[in-house]
């Protein structure tokens, strides 16, 4: 599996997780999170392997120490992803290295 496929699969799984979440008074937050994450997954899967955003994630260690493992963003970045409701998918990917580094 390529890095972009792995990243997309991770984001898609998080989006589906948000779709399955039922909270009576969330005012559509789970749906917004799910849509933003599914959109980010499709965006990530369309990136070339040498895209600067993918390279930044690799340098941040999100693909393991050698850059060839499955996407694993770390605890802080995973929490950030789970709560993402941002507008543009590239903004999520751009923010992840800083969130990973702050952990």
Report on the structure:
This protein has 103 residues and is mostly helical. The protein has one domain. The chain is 63% helix and 0% strand. It contains 5 helices and no strands. Helix 2 crosses helix 5 (89-102) and helix 4 packs antiparallel against helix 5. The longest helix has 18 residues, at 3-20. The protein is globular, with a radius of gyration of 13 Å. The model has no long low-confidence stretch (mean pLDDT 90).
Provide a compact summary of the structure.
Helix content is 63%, strand content 0%. The chain has 103 residues and is mostly helical. The relative contact order is 0.19.
Unreliable runs? none
Individual helix count: 5
What is the SS-derived class?
mainly alpha
The number of domains is 1
Query: Largest beta sheet, briefly?
Result: none
Output mean pLDDT. Answer: 90
Number of DSSP E strands:
0
Q: Quaternary state, please?
A: single chain
What is the terminal-to-terminal distance?
27 Å
Q: Compute the CA-based radius of gyration.
A: 13 Å
> SSE order, as H and E?
HHHHH
| 3D shape | globular
> Which bin fits the share of residues in helices?
55-70%
Strand content: under 5%
């Amino acid at each position: 599996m390529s890095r972009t496929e792995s990243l997309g699969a991770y984001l898609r799984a998080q989006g589906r997780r948000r779709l399955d979440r039922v909270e009576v008074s969330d005012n559509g937050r789970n749906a917004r999170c799910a849509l933003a994450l599914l959109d980010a997954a499709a965006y990530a899967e369309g990136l070339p392997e040498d895209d600067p955003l993918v390279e930044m994630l690799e340098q941040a260690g999100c693909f393991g120490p050698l850059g060839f493992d499955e996407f694993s963003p770390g605890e802080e970045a995973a929490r950030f992803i789970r709560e993402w409701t941002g507008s543009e998918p590239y903004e999520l990917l751009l923010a992840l290295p800083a969130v990973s580094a702050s952990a």
